[in-house]
Amino acid sequence: MRRPIRIAVTGAAGSIASHLVFKVAAGEMFGKDQPVILQLIEIPQAMDALLGLAMELEDCAFPLLHTITLHDNVEEGFNNVHYALLIGATPRRPGMERKDLLQQNAAIFARQGKALNDYANRDVKALIVGNPANTNALVAARNAPDLSPSQFTTLTRLDQNRAIGILANHTGVNPKDIDGVVIWGNHSTTQFPDLHQATLYGNPAMPAIPMAWYTETYIPAIQKRGGAILEKRGVSSAPSAAQAIVDHMRDWALGTGPGQIVSMGIASDGSYGIAKGIYYSFPVRCNYGRYQIVQGFDLNEFQRERLKFTEAELLEEKAGIEHLLPKDTEARH
Ligand code: NAD
Ligand code: LMR
């Protein structure tokens, strides 16, 4: 039997985490032979709810779940963790501007970056889910001087899964026979769901798809899917977000399938002309616990414009929280 790995989850009593922790404890993220220790973190006011969740986890008697620990602060909760799932964030309230949310959450993620730097395992892999996820990841990474920017990633797998699911329904092709769907940029309405490299049963997808449907129906549907779910359910997407987190972490830790391309928000290294110093979603492959950007796509004018449009939003977000980015970590990004 393997040694247990330590996984921290922030916002652990919230909607997404309430689905996620059961999947992790059942072995869906790291495999059916990998024991886990869950270090669950909440704000002090939510500790009762967290205790209730821990009781339900205990009641499942999961063989892989070695220990559950509960924490009301990240400094304690991140102790020695191998994986950190940063989900907790302040939700947007009525009357709140996007930039207000950015300020409040960036301050939370600055503290979390420092805590990962000071207390987590040196090889920790962190996934930022709390919105605005890409810029929160930048803040966390820049506040962790002893960790590499590549140890921080953000979630666009939900957007990728949405893009595949909706395409599968439209074309009648099973999701497993669709590959090469790419999400570029920010996890927001400026993201670019790109089908130019996508295949259906190994054949190029674009010739099989009417351009008008692609640009006028499909792209906006993916970009606005989060809002559409919020409007219908009254709460933001949670089960599908939990599934996407499982998919993202499993692929990052255990590797993508042969030839498979997935999308992850990562520190830009300048690939495809995207500014260094932002967390941007790229097509990647993963192997041996590391990701690599898939290079060499020959982008047309339509694609290049979309890549730049979502990049501009991320640069604007970055400008809004520049004061939370320590200067001494700038050169690494
Ligand atoms: P939720 O409000 O149900 O739960 C959030 C939890 O976080 C709450 O229990 C709250 O007490 C806790 N929390 C707040 N600040 C915290 C802190 N500093 N430390 C620890 N815990 C803290 O929200 P949810 O539906 O679970 O969504 C969580 C976040 O994920 C939101 O920001 C949401 O917008 C975002 N989200 C992102 C994606 C994505 O694809 N990137 C998808 C869905 C949701
Ligand atoms: C989503 O994509 O469902 C989340 O980021 C929630 C939102 O506000 O869109």
UniProtKB/TrEMBL annotation:
<keyword id="KW-0520">NAD</keyword>
<feature type="binding site">
    <location>
        <position position="98"/>
    </location>
    <ligand>
        <name>substrate</name>
    </ligand>
</feature>
<feature type="binding site">
    <location>
        <begin position="129"/>
        <end position="131"/>
    </location>
    <ligand>
        <name>NAD(+)</name>
    </ligand>
</feature>
<feature type="binding site">
    <location>
        <position position="162"/>
    </location>
    <ligand>
        <name>substrate</name>
    </ligand>
</feature>
<feature type="domain" description="Lactate/malate dehydrogenase N-terminal">
    <location>
        <begin position="6"/>
        <end position="145"/>
    </location>
</feature>
<feature type="binding site">
    <location>
        <position position="92"/>
    </location>
    <ligand>
        <name>substrate</name>
    </ligand>
</feature>
<feature type="domain" description="Lactate/malate dehydrogenase C-terminal">
    <location>
        <begin position="156"/>
        <end position="322"/>
    </location>
</feature>
<feature type="binding site">
    <location>
        <position position="131"/>
    </location>
    <ligand>
        <name>substrate</name>
    </ligand>
</feature>
<dbReference type="InterPro" id="IPR022383">
    <property type="entry name" value="Lactate/malate_DH_C"/>
</dbReference>
<dbReference type="InterPro" id="IPR001557">
    <property type="entry name" value="L-lactate/malate_DH"/>
</dbReference>
<feature type="active site" description="Proton acceptor">
    <location>
        <position position="187"/>
    </location>
</feature>
<feature type="binding site">
    <location>
        <position position="105"/>
    </location>
    <ligand>
        <name>NAD(+)</name>
    </ligand>
</feature>
<feature type="binding site">
    <location>
        <position position="112"/>
    </location>
    <ligand>
        <name>NAD(+)</name>
    </ligand>
</feature>
<keyword id="KW-0560">Oxidoreductase</keyword>
<dbReference type="GO" id="GO:0030060">
    <property type="term" value="F:L-malate dehydrogenase (NAD+) activity"/>
</dbReference>
<dbReference type="GO" id="GO:0006108">
    <property type="term" value="P:malate metabolic process"/>
</dbReference>
<protein>
    <recommendedName>
        <fullName>Malate dehydrogenase</fullName>
        <ecNumber>1.1.1.37</ecNumber>
    </recommendedName>
</protein>
<keyword id="KW-0816">Tricarboxylic acid cycle</keyword>
<dbReference type="Pfam" id="PF00056">
    <property type="entry name" value="Ldh_1_N"/>
</dbReference>
<dbReference type="InterPro" id="IPR001252">
    <property type="entry name" value="Malate_DH_AS"/>
</dbReference>
<dbReference type="GO" id="GO:0006099">
    <property type="term" value="P:tricarboxylic acid cycle"/>
</dbReference>
<dbReference type="InterPro" id="IPR036291">
    <property type="entry name" value="NAD(P)-bd_dom_sf"/>
</dbReference>
<dbReference type="InterPro" id="IPR015955">
    <property type="entry name" value="Lactate_DH/Glyco_Ohase_4_C"/>
</dbReference>
<dbReference type="InterPro" id="IPR001236">
    <property type="entry name" value="Lactate/malate_DH_N"/>
</dbReference>
<feature type="binding site">
    <location>
        <begin position="11"/>
        <end position="17"/>
    </location>
    <ligand>
        <name>NAD(+)</name>
    </ligand>
</feature>
<comment type="function">
    <text>Catalyzes the reversible oxidation of malate to oxaloacetate.</text>
</comment>
<dbReference type="InterPro" id="IPR010945">
    <property type="entry name" value="Malate_DH_type2"/>
</dbReference>
<comment type="similarity">
    <text>Belongs to the LDH/MDH superfamily. MDH type 2 family.</text>
</comment>
<dbReference type="Pfam" id="PF02866">
    <property type="entry name" value="Ldh_1_C"/>
</dbReference>
